[in-house]
Amino acid sequence: MSVFTLIVFKLAAGLLLDRLFGEVPRYHPLVGFGRWSNAVEARVRAWSASRLAGMLAWLLAVGPWVGLALLVRDVHPLAHWPIDIGLLYFALGGRSLTEHAEAIALPLEAGNLDEARQRTSWIVSRDTSVLDAEGVARAGTESVLENGNDAVFGALFWFLLAGGPGVLLFRLANTLDAMWGYRTQQYLRFGWAAARIDDLLNALPARLTALTYAALGRTRQALECWRRQAPSWDSPNAGPVMAAGAGALDLKLGGAAIYHGQEELRPQLGEGSAPDARAIRAAVSLVRRGILLWLAVAGLIALALERLHA
């Protein structure tokens, strides 16, 4: 059995665990990592808040855990099985993404705008208190499309490439970007390394995610929206993902949004109709079908490699 075949078996196991159990309800490792990162930030900031200090903080926050994963998976010939599968399970957020999306779509569909706004605020960083129904649907749909890369396909890519330690590196880097990667006065310099490293680790996965969305929806429109609209988006990775996703779903996303009390006029993403509760569910379906596609392609590659080595 080839190394890649072993990885695919582990990939399927991790996806199954995420599908069955979702996120750990208590004592999630990323919560502990957040506390660790806050402690590291406090210590390093006492010395400096420069870009160099931010890079040092990133290394101190992420390095020990990736190093530990590399060591622990080799303590026994079979240790790589539970370590790799466990790390993938903790890194994935497929079921959680579905649950959060449905928690927005249900009250939105029922006309309970206040609850839909509140639920949306749990998964986006924009101000949701003044959003109308279309604004809530837009925010929810954009979040599902973007997090399809961050919480699913990016994790699958790095797991296929580097196993458990690879997916751990990706997930911790993504978490630090969410904590430190803001262009605010506090993090403009200190968070520079976190934002750039996350951009680097996401560069190829984001474009594979965009291709996945395009392949499973209105392909020509998705590719055209990616080509025309993604370069004008603020994030080099979120742009392709959301433009292709919006085009694939025949939706018009983007537009004005309020972040940290400031209104941002964001470029249009996609083409087609305005989003509603059905659009949120359509985005979830796109991600879930994408997971099946990735699993099928990985399985076919593994089968081809087995035959080559037979």
From TrEMBL:
Keywords assigned by UniProt, alphabetized: Cell membrane, Cobalamin biosynthesis, Membrane, Transmembrane, Transmembrane helix
InterPro entries referenced in this protein's UniProt entry, alphabetically: Cobalamin_biosynth_CobD/CbiB (IPR004485)
Pfam families xrefs: CobD_Cbib
Its membrane topology: Multi-pass membrane protein
Residues annotated as transmembrane: 46-71, 151-173, 286-305
Recorded metabolic or biological pathway in which this protein acts: Cofactor biosynthesis; adenosylcobalamin biosynthesis
Gene Ontology cellular component terms for the protein in this record: plasma membrane
Protein's cellular compartments: Cell membrane
Any one Gene Ontology molecular-function term assigned to this protein's record: ABC-type vitamin B12 transporter activity
One GO-annotated biological process of the protein: cobalamin biosynthetic process
Function recorded in the entry: Converts cobyric acid to cobinamide by the addition of aminopropanol on the F carboxylic group.
Family under the similarity heading: Belongs to the CobD/CbiB family.
Name of this chain's protein: Cobalamin biosynthesis protein CobD
Organism: Parazoarcus communis
